[in-house]
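Predict the 3D structure for this chain.
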Amino acid sequence: MTREQAELIIEEEKLIDTDWYPSYKHAGEYHLTMWFDSDNNKYETFYVEDQGSIRLSYSFDNEKEAIDKMLQMNYEQKYFSVDENYSMQNRKEVALRIIKEEKLEVIWYDEALKPLCAGIKHDKQRDKYISFITNAKAEIIEWKSIEFDGDRYSKTFERMLNDEDIALYALINRARMIKQNRISFV
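Done. Predicted structure below.
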């Protein structure tokens, strides 16, 4: 995925404000930033909180990995700031309820692909949850796919975590954007 493609996803899916190198829009609070650190030849992504404090900082050798992480972080920040009845408890049941109530068209895990639709699948071999969008031919638009981590141990929280709930939120948000005709399918 290129930076321009990521910017289109962020705009179409109404994700949070993102700054990209080499130009920065602002130095304020509550936004994601990706930049190239020439001192160590790494692409870095981080979230700027209140009073400019930095949280969730990551370094990558190539731009594509940094862009992928930027989109994951963007959905993570949007998910945790959302003000609706979407709880981390019973996440599949809650997601299904929202999908049914809002009459959203989705591809649920192992269902057959449908045209012009948002979907979710679990790559069990790599333990990744993948949020995707299909085109008019019911083919996955690869560059619009976003991967979220499966099971991993968090030293910070001293327990196992996974991002399936964030991937489900991405599914719902993308389905809403498709329903509102905000997504391009090219």
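Helices lie at 3-12, 63-81, 91-101, 164-179.
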